[in-house]
Amino acid sequence: MTTLDTLAAPPLEPAPTRTPALIAALTAPKGFGDATLRDRRTDAIELLGGIPDAAVLPASELAEATARVLSRPGLPALQYSRTEGISPLREWIAEREGVSVDRIVVTNGGFHGLSLAIQSTLERGDLVAVDNPIFPLFLRGLELADASILPIRVGSDGLDIEHLRDELRAGARPAALYTVPDFHNPSQGTLPAEARRELVDLAEHYGFIVYADNPYRELWFGDAPESVDAFNSSDHVIHVNTFTKTLGPGLRLGWIVVPEPLRPAITALRSRQDSHSSTFVQAVVGELVTAEPTLFDSTLQRARRLYRGRAERLVAALEREAPGSFETVLPGGGLFLWPRLTDDAVDPDRLAADASAEGVEYQRGSFFPSGPGTDSDRHLRLAYGHIPEPQLDEAAARLGRALRRQLD
Length: 408
Known about the structure:
- By secondary structure, the protein is an alpha/beta fold.
- Helix content is 38%, strand content 14%.
- The protein contains 14 helices and 14 strands.
- β4 (148-155) and β5 (158-159) form a beta hairpin.
- α3 packs across α11 (279-291) and α5 packs across α10 (263-271).
- The protein is globular, with a radius of gyration of 24 Å.
């Protein structure tokens, strides 16, 4: 019953909103679409992200697959589906990976697969060995487990297995290890076959899980990369892949190859999150890759030719516009070039600022170290996937002018 006293009482002050410790501990983003990038000219050429070119994405084929999916009686693509994903998509992925379909879990892109791996295998505060330099977004994912990191050098042949072995012999006991084995982001290297086997042997001997993050694997230019059999045959490897770089990042569709002992845990975790990836997107991509068995590989062949040509064009343009200023290695695949400044007198941070003033943007190498012992700050990460060749020429010319601001 309302009384005069209650009507006259002052209103209660709103209680402050509580921020969970997990959210409060998240660090500010660095290096990917945030405040660390400069103000850009309106005509800036952005060599920033691993973006596939629209010309090699199968848009019309996706449209046709969508129409077929939506014509099916009962519209199953618009209904709920299994946590692990639907057939025939999982079956198609399993055949390409050479594993049982029970080991395939469809995800919302590659980073979602990494998140599932982290949350299903790490205790809070665990030690995780990581690439140095590293794909920095993975470090954001590790904040979900408040993990500490053990940087392991990465070179022209990918992860330095000898460095890892030395750390393990010295007493380091990581719970997991993260690496990009094929066409490493940012440093281009690919892990040789023997090193893959050695990595798996170390994981099995010392009892850690390998997160093998492989979004660029299909984008090879010459010889195909080494087999992933060593990864997919071990109970100590979670192999992560995605359609992001091949069919389009907007699909948000990927997968993980899960070791059999971890399958119940990952399925249980996923069922308590988003339950499953979009049934509709899975159905469309499954229709796309199975209706025409050669379509996916023919799409890849076009992409490989395009990206190889752009990588070659950029390497040649840098040498033409800034002779001897960059040490470059033509990548064997992927979407990035990792040139190193040869003149120690060049300040890489000033170069980035001068390049921005000239109208070319790129990721500075200083974004990528996970610890000491790397020369990443002397590197530039140049993304060429979605940049037409004339613009690559112009970007190199602008970089050359930016260099001359310091050297002339």
